[in-house]
Structures are given as structure tokens and as C-alpha cells.
Amino acid sequence: MSGIFSGTLKISVLAAAIVLTAGTPDAHAECGEVSITEMNWASASVVTNVAKFIMEQGYGCKVTAVPSDTVPAATSLAENGEPDIATEMWINSAPVYLKLESEGKVKTISNVLSDGGAEHWLIPKYLAEKHPELKTIEGVLANPELVGGRFHNCPEGWGCRIVNDSLKQAFDLEGRGIEVFNHGSGDTLAASIGSAYTAGKPWFGYYWAPTALLGKFEMVPVDLGPYVDKIHQCNRNPDCKDVGKSSYPSARVVTGVTTDFAAREPEVVAMLSKLSFTNQQMGAVLAWKEDKNASIEETTVHFLTTYKDVWGNWLNDEARTKLAGLLK
Question: Closest Cα partner for 189 from 218, 156, 215?
């Protein structure tokens, strides 16, 4: 454990439990093996690790976290019926998920971000204040040099990458003098915002909320025009030939489980159906993680020790009894 928890035995013990729980001999007596996605962005890691701890320590499951992204997770569900649990699925970026739901292969059990997710093309607030014309896509396209002549795009495998690749064609970004830079990871995308903000330089690209980053660096959405559902549905399909101009909708962010898992582990599914974060809660947890330079295990500990009144209400009576020591 890092020095930020020095002298706090209870937190240290809990953190050790999170890291070592897979080796606890009696932890898996009641529930079988469970697989859950761990998407490669911070809020999803918080959701997964909180769920993993509760399932293992409260419900006796043996949980495997499967590193993934939105599109590969949906594809795996379609082709393999795995993993059992897909959480923080931004379903407006994964059309195959809705198809699986309509076919009865997956069951949506909760809005894991209860406020929904926000997705935008953004510029820094200081840039919007200096050049208010940049608050519309028309203003950006007319003045590419004011945004640094670059659009910061999502990494490969993210659902937003498909939508942005459609929109870049619809708005002809490169033809209007804006280079599209495809980031290799969420970390480099985030770092590009921090670097620009610290230096007071232009930045133009995609990001989403809730995130600690947008809590720390105030960004302003670029108006892409009205949301048109038919166009957006096409834009998020990699095979779409008729891309068009549309803003992002407010995103529904869910936890889904396979129908087999729902039938096999109803008590776990009942808990997961209540496992939900407001954007304010998640933003605060992520800001703490960033401020403390904390690991995901330490951040999970922080949530479990700070928000007992939240997660305590997710549990059934038996799990609440098992975790009573942590709820005091």
C-alpha cells in the first residue's frame, strides 16, 4: 500500500483483501466462477473492481476480470456468450449489444451510470472565451488554425472511434485542414488535454463524462448540430455507407448479463441491478484517484470505505451480514 494510507489498518486490510481474495480458500463456496468485463478506462475499472469485491466477499463468487473495450466485449458476447457480466456498456456505441438484447442473449439489468454518460467534441473553456465562434462546428471548420489544426480521436476498439470516424467524413475534417490524430490509448488522449490546458494551447477532440479529467479541466462542447437518430444509428455502424452530421445523444450506460448467468445466479444479478453510480459520485471518486495518484485497488477501497451508505443498500441480507464489519 502507498503512503496515503499510512496508519490506517482497516483500509490496508481491506485493500489486501481486494488484491488477494482469489486465494481465499472459503470465499467461493456459494457461487461459481464468474467473468466480468474490465473496460480500459477509469470509471469502468472502478465499477468492475467494486462489483468484483462484493461478489467475492459477499456472495462467494470466484470472479475473473476480463480486460476489454466496448466493441470487443459486445462481439465476444455475440460469438462466445462470454463474459457473464458486461458493465459500463455505452450501448449507443455498440449496436450489436441491442441486437443481442432483442434476441434474448443478454439482459440489461441496470443503468450503471444513473445520470447517463455525456459524449462531446470539446475545446478548452479558455479557447471558447477567446474565440466564441469555435463553440460551433461551423466556426471550427472555418478557423482550423485556432484549434491547432488537429482533432484528437478515440483509440481503436472504442465505440466512439466508429462514430467519430463517420463524423470526420461527414464534416470533411481533413479536407478543411484538420488532421485527425488517432490516439493509441485512453491515457494518451487524456494526457493531451492536460498538456494543452497546462500550456494554455488549443485542443479539439472527443471526451466523455463522468471523468475526473473534465472535473479538473473545464471544457466546452462544440455544437455539432441537432441529434438525428437515424443518422447517428448509421454513424455508429462501421459498415455504414451513408454517414451524416449529428451530435451525440445522451448515452445510456448499462450493466448487462447473459441470460444463462441471470438464471444461474439470481442473487448476484439482484445485487448488480442496484449497483449504480451518479455522475457526481463517480466524478468524485475519480478525482480522488487522480489527486492521490492511487491504484485502482486503492480507489476501490476509498469507495467502499467512503460510500458505505450507497453500496450497503445493494446487498441481500446474507451478504450484508458477511460484510457487516466493513459497514460499521
Answer: 156
